[in-house]
Amino acid sequence: MINCGSSSIKYQLYQMPEKAVICKGFVERIGESGAALRHQYRDDTTCLQCEIADHQQGMALILDTLVGAESPLDDVTEIGAVGHRVVHGGEEFTGSVTITDRVIASIERFANLAPLHNPPNLTGIRAAKGKLPDTPQIACFDTSFHATIPEVAYTYALPYDLYERFGIRRYGFHGTSHRYVARRAAKLLGMDKHEINCITAHLGNGCSITAVRNGRSVDTSMGLTPLEGLVMGTRSGDFDPAILFHLADRGYDMAALNKLCNKQSGLLGLSGESNDMRTLTEMAADGNRRAQLAMDVFCYRIRKYIGMYSAVLGRVDAVVFTGGIGENAADVRAGACRDLEYLGIALDTDLNGRAVGRREGPITTPDSRVKTLVIPTDEEAAIAADTYKIAGKMEMVPSRAEGPVSLAG
Ligand code: ADP
């Protein structure tokens, strides 16, 4: 599984179909000084500091590491398939696909919708294909779970030709995570995955919330880009777009506005101190008003969306919290579900307080009509599962491995 960013490549080697992580790691600061590879296998973490000029070199280093002395593989040909995380699949991809030249051309075309993400994703694909030309490569898109959102929910009330000419509409992101936790919720509730209606909140550095009807996404808070919707670490989420004209009148140019909305807003902008929920929780407990305000606005926005999506769905079987904040921050979950008893959500304070550290389970009282669940996300495992399914049954058991190593995170 490869997740390629602008200056980093994260990887995990899976043994399938067990979904067991054999080893994992990342290269970072590609093309910068201080580039390094960090590799975790069994109980050892190795760190290699060296110059990594580009993604091609980074990928070569990863593959060398996977067949190195302290690694599980004898040869890279033992890798049965490679799954790539790709951020934007436009309207074309409704699920994961084998990467062909046509798929590459499409990912390239959608780069105008995700200029920060699709180009590095493609670089990773090309580097992996270059090194493993005969190995099936699969693309798993952040957008594809949201391909089922109906026209009425994905259409912005802007001149319609903007949609026709430029593809301006809601696409949604974090799809792999929303799909994973929705399916897991169905399992925990003993329901069929195509039966469950739920609201899934992915709260990490980026945050989004999705309405799932009969196991399919029917609305989500992120839009054309990941800026819309919930309050995030440094992104504003929803606000009146006229604020931008107002600021443009006062001398802000495009670059400054972009930076303002994506890098200087959200929890960081509100608190003036940090985008990290742990820090804000501590500061708020110490009486810091701005940290408290940041947390309050964050929770209020989630609560508002839970109400909106309850109206969209009509019947809600479960609300799910996931992501670093969703899996750990009991105060945030309590704030997001406050006074929602009338919607059937009755939080159990004890259970909620104990649901930390990637612990899966319900946080509502036994008689709560809508179950609220904490489910640690595992996008990598979901990508590995798609990859395995698409590439067909294959042997990915490294010959020198003494068995799978269970790695947290
Ligand atoms: P990413 O979106 O980059 O994958 P994560 O899902 O890891 O990020 O989420 C990062 C967020 O989770 C940060 O705001 C961090 O403060 C928060 N977080 C992690 N652990 C805790 C914790 N124990 N309590 C509160 N917030 C936490």
Give the helices and strands, then pairings.
Layout: E1 2-4, E2 9-15, E3 20-28, E4 36-41, E5 44-49, H1 55-66, E6 82-86, E7 97-98, H2 101-109, H3 118-131, E8 137-141, H4 151-154, H5 160-166, H6 175-188, E9 198-203, E10 207-213, E11 216-220, H7 242-249, H8 254-263, H9 266-271, H10 277-285, H11 289-313, E12 318-322, H12 323-328, H13 330-336, H14 349-354, E13 361-362, E14 371-374, H15 379-391
Parallel strand pairs: 6-8, 9-12, 12-14
Antiparallel strand pairs: 1-2, 2-3, 3-4, 4-5, 7-8, 9-10, 10-11, 13-14
Helix pairs in contact: 1-3, 10-11, 11-13
Q: Please, could you describe this protein's structure?
A:
The chain is of the alpha+beta class. The chain has two domains: 2-144 and 394-408, ATPase, nucleotide binding domain (Nucleotidyltransferase, domain 5, 2-Layer Sandwich), CATH 3.30.420; 193-374, 2-Layer Sandwich (Nucleotidyltransferase, domain 5), CATH 3.30.420.40. The chain contains 15 helices and 14 strands. The strands form three sheets. It has a six-stranded mixed β-sheet with strand order 11-10-9-12-14-13, with helices on both faces. A five-stranded antiparallel β-sheet has the order 1-2-3-4-5, with helices on both faces. Strands 6-8-7 form a three-stranded mixed β-sheet. A hairpin with a 3-residue loop joins β9 and β10. Adenosine-5'-diphosphate binds next to α10 and α12.
